[in-house]
Amino acid sequence: MGTVLASLARARGLLRPAVETLSRENRQLSNAKAQLIDADEELSEAETAAQRLLDVARGVEIPTGPLARETVDASEVLRLTLRLMQNELRVLQSLEIDHRPVPLVAGSSAQLGQIILNMLVSALDAMSIVPRSKRKLAVRLFFDEPWVKIEFSDSGPALTDDLLSQDFDPWNRGSGPRGQGLGLAISKAILEEVGGRLEAENSASGVVFRVSLPKCKSMLPAAPEA
């Protein structure tokens, strides 16, 4: 929700001088009107962003009970979740997808989708304070025996020491745009139920989050028919 918070903060900054102007002289009402119009546009942008995130959240199951076990094609879940987020991803300057065949994994398609969604939203939130020309995200799906891995590399600010050490504690708010840890904590909990793991590290260009899932079996998903 970094984009929403940033828009609301800008709107408040525009409203304060407008109110001060109105309290002084009537000849300055035209300036106040222009400032209020700018503030309204900022609030409208925030409302639109919030509505889009709500629409995305409604499309993915939030884990509320025991993990439903099924055979999951991580490649297909990633493809569908990226499609679901296509409007939000348009704020990026570049999006790179490295999509390779991987073994099936055990778990829940809906909850794997929730993990991918959380990673994407976290990256977008972090990059909301970065100029649009520098907003870059790379998503890589690959197999590294015995793990099926999904890496999310974004160009947002580096993780602070408290976030690197807190083990995605939802009650530790941390600092900076990545300080909201609930989505990461949920993802970590889901992964641990199936023997997976969530890792994060700073890189030369930003931050890398790595989702690792144990393979269900050695057989790769059947290739789609032509």
Structure description:
The strands form 2 sheets. This protein has a 5-stranded mixed β-sheet with strand order 2-4-5-7-6. Strands 1-3 form a two-stranded antiparallel sheet. The model is unreliable at 59-64, 171-175 and 218-226 (pLDDT under 50). The two termini are 41 Å apart. It has 226 residues and is of the alpha+beta class. The protein is 43% helix and 19% strand. α1 (2-22) packs antiparallel against α2 (29-58), α3 (74-84) crosses α4 (109-127) and α4 (109-127) packs antiparallel against α6. The chain has helices spanning 2-22, 29-58, 74-84, 109-127, 161-165, 182-193, and strands at residues 70-72, 94-99, 105-107, 136-144, 147-154, 197-202, 207-214. The protein folds into 2 domains: 2-58; 70-214, 2-Layer Sandwich (Heat Shock Protein 90), CATH 3.30.565.10. The radius of gyration is 21 Å and the shape is elongated. The longest helix has 30 residues, at 29-58. β6 (197-202) and β7 form a beta hairpin. The chain contains 6 helices and 7 strands, in the order ααβαββαββααββ.
